[in-house]
Every structure is written in C-alpha cells, then in structure tokens.
Amino acid sequence: MSKIIVLGAGMIGSAMAIDLAKNHSVTLSDIDQIALKKVKEKCIEINIINVDVTHKKDLYKAIIPFNIVVCAVPGYLGFKTLKYIIEAKKDVVDISFFPENALKLNDLAIQNNITAIVDCGVAPGMGNIILGYHNELMNITNFECLVGGLPKIKKWPFNYKAPFSPIDVIEEYTRPARYVENGKLITREALTDVELVEFNNVGTLESFNSDGLRSLIFTMPHIPNMKEKTLRYPGHVEYIKVLKETGFFDTEKIEINGTKVSPIELTNKILFKEWELGDNEEEITVMKITIKGIDKSGKELEIIYNLHDTFDAKTQTSSMARTTGYTATAAVNLVLEGLFNKKGVFPPELAGKHEVCYDFILNYLDKRGVVYSKSKKLYNE
After folding, report:
1. What is the pLDDT of residue 59?
2. Hey, which end of the chain has fewer CB within 10 Å, N or C?
3. Segment (H or E) for 87
4. Pairing mode, strands 91-94 and 68-71
C-alpha cells in the first residue's frame, strides 16, 4: 500500500483522495480546516492535515513521508507548488492547470530523478492522452477537442455552474486562445469563432475558442491543424462578452467611496454565488474529440471519441470531479505500478503515446463509469 498526499481539498481534490483511499493510504491537505473536515466525514479512511503550500518549508515537511504527491491547488499557485514538489524529489501528478509552461521544469525534474505528469484532467488531459496514442498509429492532419461542464438544469442568465472558482473560469474567458491552422500558430481572443454543435442527450451547444491546446503546441508541432473549443449552452457567450467589454474583468483598481477595488475581484465575488455548484447539484460533462489523418496503410481515417458523463448520485460526486479527478488518479496508479517511470515533466500525450498507459487509463475510467465511446470511418476503402 503506497502513501499518497493530495494537496487541495476542493471538489476535485477531495474526489481524488476518496478514490485513491480505496487502495492506498491517503492524506488530504489544505489550508481550509472546514473543507478537510467535510471530506473526513465522507471518508473516514482519509487522514487530514493543514498545509499552506505557499510556505516552502511547511510543504517540504508535509510531503517528505509520501511516495507520490497529487497537486490540486488553484491555478495561480500551481507552477510554484509543482517546482517545490520537484525540488523535494517527489513524484507528482498535477491538475492545477497553471498558465505557465510546465515543460520549463523538465530539466529540474530530470536532475531530481522524479516523474511529473501535468495537466492530467479531462481537457487538458484525456484529449491529450487519446491524441498521443493515435499519433503513434497514424499521420494526423486534424485534431479538434470540444469540451464543457454544464449544469443539468439551466438558470438564466448564464445557464452555467462552475465546479471551481469563478476566477479560474474568467481566466479561460480572458486568456488569448492559441490554435494551429495549416501549420501556423494562430492567436485570437477567447470567446471567438462561436459555432452551434448538436450533441445527443443534450441538444444544441455553442463552442468557442479557448486556450486549451497548451502543451500540444510544443509536443505535436507536426500536426498542421489543432483546435480546442469550450462548450456552453447557447447565449452564454454573449452575456460573458458584455461583462468583458464593459470592464467587469479589468484588473486595474478603481476607487469607490474611498475604497479601491479591482472590477475582476468584485465580479468574482458576485459570480461565485451565481455560478456556485451545489454539493448535490446534477451536472454533466460533454466532450467530443475528432482526429483525422492517414493510417499506416495509406487510408484516410476519421476517429471520434464521445463522452457524456453525469453526476453520480450514489457517491455524490460531480461529473467534472469524476472525469477530471479519475484521469489523474489513474495516472497516479500508472506511476505507482511502474507502468510509466520515465524521469522529467510529461504532459499527458507523452504518457498516452504508450499503448499500455492508454489502455490502463481508459480501463481505469471505465471501471468508474466514465466511458469514452469510440467510432471510426475510412474514407477511401
């Protein structure tokens, strides 16, 4: 039985801790004692400790006894926390989705002889794993990932609920979106190129540009067309654009009755209540991955993966926590079982390229009811 510490007791961090506790000795850490106690009540097998990851010495002391670390801290803390973990010579699986390039820590990870798998969620995460696998089998010309987490019951005006902080969602709406078209890196504003797409069991959704390719831009430069787009219910983008254009996402502080406050801080507070996902509120995760190219026999091929996942009423676990968290816990077991033991920093596509890793992760998810359906079409048989 391995000893695992999970940093971050949020919705996804707690789901990962509970999943890992089935077969391992798990400690969950957070700065929020109330959040920790809440998880402890749900799963008594989990140990809990208070840790402030911004204090390097405290973090070192906390993680030393463990075989592997799972990092689920907020994005703005992610890069520095990952660096500290690597310096402490601990293997790590990270889902903090920080804006910095994790590959900048690759040399440090090699020097410290550790394995770090980053961006290991649903998207980025499973989309990367699937692409990495098929990249070994065919000459890919097009990759598209459409993905979104949505409430089952719509509530006007945004028709949206977030399983994490609104500030992280706003980052998705404000960070320039990068995609690859005809071999060239294109950068556009987020929320652009809105298209309506039909999904079974959901209906019409709108897709828009977001900066979801991340590491794929650097690890898969030979693929001429790559794009990731976020999914929301129709009308959501227009409301977000209104907020964005009128300054509600601005970071520069303004003075109101003698008090200085940044508009984005105020917006975050307001939207937290509007977007907060209730503990037992039903939501869904929808994803469609399309890969096109030429197989090794020279035939034109299209492969499509579809995911439609829902809130698990039995375990009271959100779909986003399941689809994101269980991908990461699969990767944890991948490392612990020695199926992936390369040293350095690895985005998921560099693990998924190995058939044994791809199969292990998909089987792990399938056993937990997170099922990716796959179909393929040959165009010149």
Report:
1. 95
2. C
3. helix 75-87
4. parallel
Q: Report the DSSP beta bridge partners of residue 205.
A: 197
Q: pLDDT for 198-229, tens place per residue?
A: 998 899 999 999 999 999 999 999 999 999 99
Q: Return the structure tokens found at 126.
A: 């499973």
Q: pLDDT: is 165 or 372 the higher one?
A: 372
Percent of the chain with pLDDT over 70: 99
* 24 CB neighbour count, 10 Å cutoff: 19
CA distance 17 to 28: 7
Residue 75 pLDDT? 86
Q: How far apart are CA 93 and CA 335, in angstroms?
A: 9
- The single-letter code of the amino acid at 257 is N
Per-domain residue ranges for the chain? Answer: 3-122+319-370, 126-310
Q: Give residues with Cβ within 8 angstroms of 210, minimum separation 6.
A: 172, 173, 175, 177, 190, 191, 228, 229, 230
Give the mean pLDDT of the chain.
94
- Please name the fold of domain 126-310: Dihydrodipicolinate Reductase; domain 2 (3.30.360)
Residues 240, 197, 11, 212, Cα dihedral to 10°: -80
Whole-angstrom CA distances from 7 to 10, 129, 140, 177, 192 are 9, 23, 37, 29, 34
Bridge partners, 364 (sequence order): none
Token readout for 264 is 């984005």
Edge-to-edge strands of the sheet including 91-94?
47-50, 25-30, 3-7, 68-71, 91-94, 115-117, 344-346
Fold of 3-122+319-370: Rossmann fold (3.40.50)
pLDDT for the residue numbered 316 = 87
Contact by Cβ (8 Å): 88, 64: yes
pLDDT digits (tens, 9 = 90+) for 261-315: 999 999 999 998 889 887 778 999 999 999 999 998 899 999 999 999 999 988 8
Model confidence at 168, pLDDT cuts 50, 70, 90, reads confident
What number of residues does the chain have?
Answer: 381
Residue 380 has pLDDT above 70, yes or no: no
